[in-house]
Specification:
By secondary structure, the protein is α/β, with parallel strands linked by helices. The chain has eight helices and ten strands. Helix 2 packs across helix 3.
């Protein structure tokens, strides 16, 4: 049973003026005298911190007496801000702001889908700083770095291109919600400014990738391609033969737990 007594819920303000938005954060405090990294959950596109994987990661932190950090990007979950104004730069800014607010000394980043892209960009930004949280490891679940350029733009239909040009966005049927996915021109253009699969990605830590081979949204070939850009890191890739994009089944959660535990106890 998850201990909710040690959870703190609050909001922080990110940005200023017209760009200000309220970001909802749930933080689990570590047990006193318990040293170890804080787990940082980075969710996917249109996902939120109340999802199965995010909750299970927090529960694992509770079992171990470690800290965990969850938050909703603007336009997601219970955070403020408009979803259509979201970009990788905007959501990355929010991830950085959350860490700056909490100031964990050590972290394990767990990024799901688009959160994998945010995680890798977060590493790049933190490495530029003299003082920043030490990254003990990274777990990427069906990671979708560069998805706007790699997975969306090459497959745009003429109708979608026209919609982007005329309306500034296009809609796509979602398998996970009655509401369609919305992809904006701003998201796609900003994505080009945040590409990570353009050269060596230096994380300075171990990376574990969990990828379903029946993922209809992010083909497992994308995970294989990502590994090519992580030559300096200890990378483990777990391909789940019958796994989908969500990887939220009990057997998938066990793999997630095992990956996180390995980063803690094997390093």
């Amino acid at each position: 049973m998850t201990d909710t007594a040690s959870l703190t819920r609050r909001t922080i303000t990110v940005g200023s003026g017209a760009g200000a938005r309220q970001i909802a954060v749930i933080q689990r405090a570590a047990l006193k005298k318990k040293s170890g990294p804080a787990f940082v959950w980075l969710g996917g596109y249109r996902s939120d911190m109340a999802g199965t994987k995010a909750v299970e990661l927090d529960a694992l932190a509770g079992e171990l007496g470690l800290a965990s950090i969850r938050f909703d990007y603007s336009g997601h979950g219970i955070s403020g801000g408009a979803f259509r104004e979201g970009t990788i730069s905007r959501w990355l800014e929010e991830a950085i702001a959350v860490l700056d607010d909490i100031k964990p000394k050590r972290v394990i980043l767990v990024g799901s889908s688009m959160g994998g892209w945010i995680a890798l960009r977060l590493v790049q930004e933190l490495r530029k700083r003299k003082k920043a949280a030490k990254i003990d490891g990274i777990v990427l679940i069906a990671p979708a770095p560069d998805f706007t350029a790699e997975l969306i733009e090459p497959n745009l239909t003429e109708v979608e291109r026209q919609s982007l040009a005329e309306r500034g966005y296009f809609e796509e049927h979602s398998e996970y919600s009655p509401e369609p996915n919305i992809y904006t021109r701003a998201l796609i253009e900003d994505g080009r400014l945040n590409l990570v699969m353009t050269g060596i990605i230096e994380t300075g830590c171990s990376v574990h990738i969990l990828q379903g081979m029946k993922d209809p949204d992010v083909p497992y070939a994308h995970a294989l391609k990502l590994i090519e850009f992580l030559p300096a890191d200890d990378v483990v890739l777990t391909l789940i033969r019958d796994g989908d994009h969500r990887l939220s089944r009990p057997q998938d959660i066990e793999k997630l737990r095992a990956a996180v535990l390995a980063l803690i106890f094997n390093d």
